[in-house]
Amino acid sequence: IAYFPDGYRKAANDPISPRALKHVNHLRRLCTEENTVCALVFVVQRSDCHIFQPTKNDPIYRKAVYEAKEAGVRIIPHSVTWEDGEAVWKARMDMNLKDASDMF
Questions:
Q1: Is residue 54 a contact partner of residue 1, using CB atoms and an 8 Å limit?
Q2: What are phi and psi of 25, to 5 degrees?
Q3: Residue 72: which of 20, 104, 34, 37 has the closest Cα?
Q4: 3-class secondary structure, 43
Q5: CB under 8 Å to 22, separation ≥6 — which residues?
């Protein structure tokens, strides 16, 4: 499983990446505008991952990504490998945006 974001947070109730959360929420708002298509693309630079999920270590961000998808934002996780110094796009990955353990 590939998951995002990963890192340090200032306080336990803060998102890991306030900036990433801001971008997801902005896309959710934008996709409601007429003639507007929004996509959130995750590029996973690993060949051993087959499922993408927003990390359960950041339920605020995880919920925001789920709500963005429900609002119409396209969530597109793709794996990429590197061959001879060039990126090679592989298959679009399956997703786990919400499961039975989520409280939203």
A1: no
A2: -65, -35
A3: 37
A4: strand
A5: none
Looking at residue 1, what is its pLDDT? Answer: 56
pTM for the model stands at 0.87
R_g of the chain computed on alpha carbons: 14
Residue 73 token pair: 């934002």
Q: Rounded to whole angstroms, how far apart are CA atoms 63 and 50?
A: 21
**Amino acid identity for residue 47 in this structure:** S
Residue 11 vs residues 18, 19, 21: alpha-carbon distances, Å:
12, 15, 15
CA 76, distance to chain mean position in Å, is 8
Task: Tell me the pLDDT tens digit for each residue of 35-52.
Answer: 999 999 999 998 898 999
